[in-house]
Amino acid sequence: MTKPTSKIRLLPIIIVIAFLSGVAAFYMTTPPSGNPDDTVSGQEDKVSSTGIADTRYASYATGNLKKMVFHKTPKIHKELSFINAAGESVGLDVFAGNYVVLNFWATWCVPCREEMPSLDALQKHFNGQPLKVVALSTDRGSADKPKKFLKELNITELAFFHDPKSQAARDTGLFGLPTTLLLDMQGREIGRLSGEAVWDAEEVKVFLEALISGDLAMNVEASKP
């Protein structure tokens, strides 16, 4: 007599677990705005199986850059703003004159933890060159937790930046974490990689060095989202 009762009692728990799993899946596959129409910038590009939209960069679509989508024309976002380590509001203008590898992450994101040391190593490799790696935490609320996270991972080359209300994430049409945008010297998005990567891999450094040196000519005409 007790076994059927136990099953009945477990039913609400199972329903709750299923509901929470659905919420988690929705969060990871829906833009922070909650609007399915707010898709990732560049999804309208015709993307090949390699992830490259602009075939001029197909030779670089190997290894950790295989999922990178390069836009046929740079994409202009709203003026992004976020918080620095001192608690001040700053924007992309502080990186003017540099290419920017803009990585969105959070402390609860396991792939973010795995790739963070390689982002730190990438910045160390390009120190003194016109390229900045910007790791932007999307953790809600206080900056204490993401700061502690970086300290635990012994991140020394990356400055701390925080997007506590996910406003920058929404303004760029973010679709899950981690997501990394490649910005040109005018702050326009020229590429996007959804998911994790080993950012200090040789193929990544070779591509970015070619970009900095001018061997890769990016389109100068930009399109607004």
UniProtKB/TrEMBL annotation:
InterPro entries assigned: AhpC/TSA, Thioredoxin-like_sf, Thioredoxin_CS, Thioredoxin_domain, Thioredoxin_ResA/DsbE_sf
GO terms, molecular function: antioxidant activity; disulfide oxidoreductase activity
Record-linked Pfam families: AhpC-TSA
Location of the Thioredoxin domain: 29-213
Protein keywords: Redox-active center
Name of the protein described by the UniProt record: Thioredoxin domain-containing protein
Protein origin, superkingdom: Bacteria
Keyword DNA-binding: no
Species this protein is from: Candidatus Micropelagius thuwalensis
